[in-house]
C-alpha cells in the first residue's frame, strides 16, 4: 500500500471515498496521522465512531462530483469494493460470483459550495481517491473548482480496465492527469486488477505555464502601453493644434470682450433707466391696486345683486312653467274650436246647396205668376212668402259668414304670445255664447224649405 509522507504536523490531505469500506482508506489513521488539516468526503455520511484509528477531521457527507445518472452508492460482495456505477462485463469475467449486497443514495457537492470546502488548505496538499467508477466525475469537479492545480500529490485506486459504467481504466486516467501537469511517481500492483497510482504534480511544467502566462500578460501589457503612448502622442499633437487654434480664438475673444464691455455699460445704463421706470410703475401699481380693491368691492356687490336676480329668475321660471301649462290647455281648446269650425263650414256649404236648389223654384214661381193672372193675389202672397224665406235664408247665410269670419279671426288671435292668453279666453267665452244660435239656424232653414215645397205643391194643381 502507498502511504503519503508528510512532515510533522504539516500539509493537508483530502480523502474521497468510504472510510472503513475501501481498501486504500481502510487504515485511515495511518494515512492521515501526519496531516495538520484533514478533509473527508464520505458519501455514506459521518464517520462511524467504531471505525478503528479514526482521527479528528472535517467530514462532509457529500461526494464532490460533476454529476451522475443516478446518485446511488453500491456495495459489493468483494471486500473493500464500493462503487457508484454498475459492473461491466470485464468485472464479471474477473469475479464471476460478484454480487451487490447493499446500496444507499447520496448527494453531490459542486460549485461555490465545493470551492468553500477546499479553501484555505495548508501546503503541501495531497488527495487520496478510492471510489471506482467515479474518478472522471470527481476530477471534473476538482478541475471546475480549480482545486486540481493546487494538489501536490494525488493517489487513486482504479481498475486496470473499465470495471464499472463511466469509470476510467489505468491508461485513460494516467493520460488525463498527464494533460493536467501530473506525472506517475509510483505504482502499487500488489493487486494486479486494482493498481494504486500515485501522481505528483509537475512543478516545472506548472511554473513554465505560469511563466508563459505571465510573459503573455507582460507582452499584452507592453502592447497596451505602446498603444497608450501612441495615443498620448496623438492626443498631444491634437492638443498643440487645439492650443494654436485656442490662441487665435483668444485674440478674437478679446476683441469680442471689448465690444461686450461696451455693450454691458450701455446695458447698465438702460438698466438704471429701467429701474427708474420700474419705480414709477410701482407707484402706478399701488394706485391700480387701490382701484382694484374698489372694483373688487363693486364686483362683490354685483355678485350679491346677481344672486338676488338669479333667485328672482328662478321664481319667474316657475311661474313661466305654470303659464306654459295653461297655454297647453288653451292650445287643446283651440284645436277643439277648429274642429267645430270645420263642422260649421260643412253647414254653410249645405246652406249654399239649398239656396241653389231654391233659386230655380223661385224663377218657376215668377213664371207661373206671369202665366196665371187669375191667381195673382195668391201668387203675390206666395211670392211674398218666398221672398221672405229667401231674405231669411240670405240673412242666415250672411250670419253664418259673419260667424265664420269671427271664428277665423279668433283662430288668428290664438297664435300670439302667451301674454295674451286672458284675451283668448274671453273671446272663447263669447264664441261659446254664439254657438247655440248657430246650431238653431239649420232648423229654421229646414222649415223654410218645407214651407217652400208646400207652396209649390199647392201651386201646381191650379195650373
Secondary structure elements and their pairing?
Blueprint: E1 12-17, H1 28-32, E2 37-41, E3 58-60, E4 62-64, E5 72-76, E6 82-83, H2 89-94, E7 100-105, E8 107-109, H3 111-117, E9 125-130, H4 135-144, E10 153-157, H5 170-178, E11 182-188, E12 196-201, H6 203-371, H7 376-414, H8 421-462
Parallel strand pairs: 1-2, 1-9, 2-3, 4-8, 9-10
Antiparallel strand pairs: 5-6, 5-7, 10-12, 11-12
Helix pairs in contact: 6-7, 6-8, 7-8
Quick tags:
12 strands; Rossmann fold; elongated; 463 residues; 2 domains; 8 helices; alpha/beta; 7-stranded mixed beta sheet
Return the structural class.
Answer: alpha/beta
Number of domains: 2
Widest sheet: strand ordering = 3-2-1-9-10-12-11
For the sheet with most strands, the description reads: 7 strands, mixed
CATH topology grouping of the largest domain: Rossmann fold
Order of SSEs, N→C?
Answer: EHEEEEEHEEHEHEHEEHHH
Number of separate strands: 12
Number of discrete helical segments: 8
Stretches where pLDDT is under 50 for at least 5 consecutive residues are 1-8, 49-54, 456-463
CATH architecture of the largest domain: 3-Layer(aba) Sandwich
* Mean pLDDT value: 79
Q: Separation of termini?
A: 181 Å
Shape: elongated
Rg, rounded, reads: 69 Å
* DSSP strand content: 5-15%
Amino acid at each position: 500500500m502507498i502511504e503519503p509522507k508528510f512532515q510533522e504536523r504539516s500539509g493537508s490531505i483530502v480523502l474521497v471515498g468510504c472510510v472503513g469500506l475501501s481498501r486504500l482508506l481502510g487504515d485511515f489513521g495511518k494515512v492521515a496521522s501526519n496531516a495538520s488539516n484533514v478533509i473527508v468526503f464520505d458519501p455514506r455520511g459521518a464517520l462511524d465512531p467504531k471505525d478503528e484509528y479514526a482521527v479528528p477531521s472535517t467530514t462532509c457527507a457529500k461526494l464532490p462530483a460533476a454529476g451522475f445518472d443516478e446518485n446511488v452508492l453500491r456495495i459489493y460482495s468483494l471486500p473493500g469494493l464500493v462503487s457508484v456505477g454498475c459492473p461491466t462485463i470485464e468485472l464479471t469475467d474477473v469475479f464471476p460470483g460478484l454480487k451487490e449486497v447493499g446500496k444507499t443514495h447520496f448527494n453531490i457537492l459542486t460549485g461555490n459550495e465545493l470551492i468553500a470546502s477546499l479553501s484555505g488548505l495548508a501546503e503541501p496538499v495531497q488527495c487520496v481517491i478510492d471510489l471506482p467508477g467515479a474518478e472522471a466525475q470527481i476530477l471534473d469537479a476538482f478541475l471546475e473548482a480549480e482545486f486540481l492545480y493546487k494538489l501536490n500529490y494525488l493517489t487513486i485506486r482504479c481498475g486496470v480496465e473499465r470495471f464499472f459504467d463511466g469509470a476510467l481504466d489505468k491508461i485513460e486516467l494516467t493520460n488525463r492527469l498527464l494533460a493536467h501537469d501530473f506525472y506517475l511517481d509510483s505504482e502499487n500492483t500488489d493487486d494486479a486488477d486494482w493498481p494504486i497510482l500515485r501522481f505528483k504534480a509537475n512543478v516545472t511544467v506548472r511554473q513554465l505555464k505560469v511563466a508563459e502566462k505571465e510573459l503573455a500578460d507582460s507582452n499584452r501589457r507592453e502592447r497596451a502601453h505602446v498603444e497608450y503612448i501612441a495615443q498620448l502622442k496623438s492626443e498631444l499633437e491634437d492638443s498643440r493644434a487645439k492650443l494654436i487654434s485656442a490662441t487665435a480664438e483668444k485674440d478674437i475673444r478679446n476683441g469680442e470682450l471689448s465690444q461686450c464691455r461696451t455693450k454691458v455699460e450701455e446695458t447698465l445704463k438702460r438698466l438704471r433707466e429701467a429701474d427708474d421706470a420700474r419705480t414709477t410703475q410701482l407707484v402706478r401699481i399701488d394706485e391700480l391696486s387701490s382701484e382694484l380693491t374698489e372694483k373688487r368691492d363693486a364686483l362683490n356687490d354685483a355678485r350679491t345683486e346677481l344672486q338676488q336676480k338669479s333667485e328672482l329668475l328662478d321664481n319667474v321660471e316657475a311661474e313661466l312653467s305654470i303659464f306654459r301649462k295653461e297655454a297647453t290647455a288653451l292650445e287643446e281648446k283651440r284645436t277643439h274650436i277648429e274642429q267645430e269650425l270645420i263642422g260649421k263650414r260643412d253647414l254653410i256649404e249645405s246652406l249654399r246647396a239649398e239656396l241653389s236648389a231654391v233659386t230655380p223654384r223661385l224663377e218657376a214661381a215668377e213664371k207661373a205668376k206671369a202665366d196665371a193672372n187669375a191667381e195673382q193675389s195668391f201668387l203675390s202672397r206666395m211670392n211674398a212668402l218666398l221672398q221672405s224665406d229667401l231674405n231669411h235664408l240670405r240673412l242666415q247665410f250672411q250670419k253664418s259668414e259673419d260667424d265664420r269670419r269671427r271664428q277665423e279671426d279668433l283662430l288668428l288671435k290664438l297664435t300670439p304670445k302667451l301674454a295674451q292668453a286672458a284675451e283668448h279666453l274671453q273671446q272663447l267665452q263669447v264664441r261659446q255664447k254664439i254657438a247655440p244660435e248657430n246650431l238653431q239656424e239649420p232648423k229654421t232653414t229646414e222649415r223654410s224649405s218645407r214651407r217652400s215645397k208646400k207652396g209649390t205643391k199647392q201651386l201646381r194643381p191650379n195650373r
